[in-house]
Amino acid sequence: MVNKKEEALEKIIQLTNNALANPQISADKNLNDLLLRIRNEALSGEVFYDLKKELQPTVSGFTLRNNFQTPSELLELLTLIQTPKCWSGF
């Protein structure tokens, strides 16, 4: 039986693989590098709340450069990589 954390990690790995296969996303070096880091952390079974702070502005910049269009994989990743309520940011 798979627990919720493992399900989320599997989904994140799937979404990052799909996003990295997108030519527009792979052409954006910052976004591509960040997605590779997210995928590698997910593959190692780690929780990566700190990457949420990097992912949001990186996706926003990509969206601006991409005629205000955001691939669904990126939108789903933003919702999956959640900052916990107790996290202060320090």
Task: Give an account of the 3D structure.
The protein has 90 residues and is mostly helical. The protein has 5 helices and no strands. It has one domain.
Count structural domains: 1
- First-last Cα distance: 35 Å
Morphology call:
globular
* Alpha-carbon Rg, integer: 13 Å
Strand content: under 5%
Largest beta-sheet details: none
Query: Helix and strand succession?
Result: HHHHH
- Strand segment tally: 0
Q: What multimeric state do the chains show?
A: single chain
Residue runs with pLDDT of under 50 for 5 or more positions: none
Percent in helix: 55-70%
Average of the residue pLDDT scores: 87
Number of helices: 5
Class per helix and strand makeup: mainly alpha
Question: Nutshell version of this structure?
Answer:
The chain is mainly α and 90 residues long. The chain is built from five helices and no strands.
Features:
single chain; 90 residues; 5 helices; globular; Bacteriocin immunity protein; bacteriocin immunity; Ta0600-like_sf
Topology:
Layout: H1 4-21, H2 23-26, H3 29-43, H4 50-65, H5 72-80
Helix pairs in contact: 1-3, 1-5, 3-4
